[in-house]
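Exercise (ungraded).
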Amino acid sequence: MNEEKEVEEQSKPLVLEKLEEHHADSLLAQDEARGTVVVVVHKEQVYAVLEYLKTDPELAYAFLVDITAVDNSQMESELMQFDYARFMIVYQLYSFQDQCRVRVRVPVHENDLSVPSVTALWKGANWLERETYDMFGINFEGHPDLHRILMPDDFEGHPLRKDYPLRGRGERERFNFDKQNV
Amino acid sequence: MGLDFVGRGVEETDGNIITTTIDKVVNWGRKNSLWPMPFGTACCAIEMMATLASKFDLSRFGSEAIRFSPRQSDLLIVSGRISIKMMPVLKRIYDQMPDPKWVISMGACASCGGVFDTYTLIQGVDQFIPVDVYIPGCPPRPEDLIDAVLQVQQKITSGASPKGVEVVV
């Protein structure tokens, strides 16, 4: 009996073990996708969890690979999982020390689109958060300069939301060349 | 090249003198020294570079003097996707070119948006700037671009105005 338990514990990834130990309250769910540990974290605690993953000497997930979001508004099964949160913010981290990855997901409701910015942890988060703001309209609180990065400054809407029409709202045919600052 | 304004309504006397009209001489000069302004935004620009390099050698047709200033060029080659953010830039570049000026729309994306039927892509630059010659293809081969330059040359020889010029009769 004891032997079995040991084997079970050994196969559990270190990152999950340590997160359960230090941030058990923040974890909403955990999963594994193609060898990558996936944890779902409440947005109030996401900064603390990411800071812990980065600074803990045993984990050292020092490299922020990407920040993006997913619009689940047309995926009923996904929506139901976390109390109908429309968006899922995704943080990809990589540890050079252990050469492994972890994915942190944060459910965000449509009526409260603000998430704490992680620019204080990673300077590289600046443009990634601007892109996520531009495409999905997620408001990263504490970001030093949150404005559009891909679309023109006078663009209206957030085009990677599922309710944005693929062919746009006529902005590709209409132009006011005098208004644009080139 | 060659003195091809001779023999088309042009008198050649028996000596070393030929007579012609000033338009024909000027057009002959324009035709054989088109200075392109490259507006390369995607893979079509790679083919444009190949066209200008030694293997395909656009300088055989007098168009090797690539100018990166629109004020010094008279042939705009739009090669690649034009997004809604880039369109005002392209329009400004076109406006800065001195008359007479010609425009080649190179490839499917510049001509009609290509496969990118999305919110961010201009579905054909001819909606906003006048285009003289379209090149189909994704991307077109260098031979196609050479053919387009030759068509512009033909247009100049024929005395036709560029698409962007309003002819007042």
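Further reading is listed at the end of the chapter. For now, observe: Chain B has a mean pLDDT of 86. The domain at 33-157 of chain B is CATH 3.40.50.12280 (Rossmann fold).
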